[in-house]
Design a protein that fits this description.
The complex is a heterodimer. Chain A has helices spanning about 5-15, 20-40, 45-50, 55-60, 65-70, 75-110, 115-125, 130-175. Chain A is an all-alpha fold. In chain A, about 10% of the residues are buried. Classes of the chains: A mainly alpha, B alpha+beta.
Chain lengths: ~180, ~110
């Protein structure tokens, strides 16, 4: 079998696969041919090493999203359960947590601006007290700590939010 | 040595994970690395790699190569490394159990 025969056979056997996936997979094999030819092998040798295109297509189709996403009673029930639990509990809870995080972040940011804010107020009211100035400096320090903490916390929360969402999706899809 | 084809199919994923973990690989490279050790249809690598990416165990990136177009490299994700470690443990346990069964048969000869 030469390169064209191999690729044609593979393409035909993969006709059930979504266009974008099929194109990418075929490109992988084309690249394999390119590299092999570059290293001095013949098309026939490479096609032989790759194996039977019909079998390879079976392999690839067995794992294509359209064929492993079974929509059955189980997946529908899980989907409904996931929806109910998320809507009633998880989302309100997560919203509260994120809103709190947001509040602290904004608070922290504003605190870091304590010195300019106090200076502005002082300018407007024609007033200045060293004790309040140092208080503002202190607040700036605390603000910076809060912002740093919220930054780290935010990254952590975001990562685990993504993990949770993916876990939900896999639960519905039926993968472990 | 000719190896039972069913053994090979089951273990291809594990071998791929281990090899990629050691060093990021492009498809052709991985195929060669594996066939150094046992004969396998090199074409099976690509559906396997596709599945590993779909399952979140691998990511890909393109890297320029001195010979021709940029190559698609595969690397393991955090989850992929965890999965690999788990699979290695299972493999060791499983082959150990099988060996025990085999050794258990010997005295009866």
């Amino acid at each position: 079998m030469n390169r064209k025969q191999f690729i044609d056979a593979l393409d035909k056997a993969l006709s059930r696969m979504p266009e974008a996936d099929r194109k990418e997979l075929i490109e992988d094999y084309e690249m394999h041919f390119d590299i092999g030819l570059d290293k001095g092998k013949t098309e026939y040798e490479i096609a032989k090493e790759l194996g039977n295109p019909a079998k390879l297509a079976e392999d690839a189709l067995g794992i294509s999203p359209t064929s492993t996403n079974k929509i059955d009673i189980r997946s529908i029930l899980v989907f409904i359960a996931v929806l109910i639990i998320n809507i009633n509990f998880v989302i309100p809870f997560a919203f509260g947590v994120w809103a709190t995080w947001f509040g602290f972040s904004i608070g922290g940011i504003v605190m870091t601006m304590a010195v300019p804010i106090y200076s502005l107020i002082g300018l407007i009211m024609q007033q200045f007290e060293w004790s309040y100035f140092f208080l503002a400096v202190g607040l700036t320090g605390i603000g910076l700590l809060i912002v740093a903490a919220m930054w780290a916390l935010g990254k952590f929360m975001w990562k685990w939010s993504k993990v949770y969402v993916i876990w939900n999706i896999n639960l519905v899809k039926g993968r472990n | 040595m000719e190896i039972n084809i069913q053994f090979k199919k089951g273990v291809l994923e594990l071998c791929a994970l281990v090899i990629i973990n050691r060093k990021d690989q492009y498809g052709y490279e991985l195929a060669q690395s594996i066939t150094e050790h046992f004969q396998v249809a090199e074409g099976a690598i690509y559906p396997l790699l596709r599945r590993l990416v779909q399952d979140g165990y691998c990511t890909t990136y393109l890297q320029e190569s001195s010979e021709g177009p940029p190559r698609k490299y595969y690397k393991l994700t955090e989850t992929g490394i965890q999965y690999m470690t788990k699979s290695i443990k299972e493999w060791k346990y499983f082959t150990n159990q099988v060996s025990q069964i085999i050794e258990g048969v010997v005295p009866n000869e």
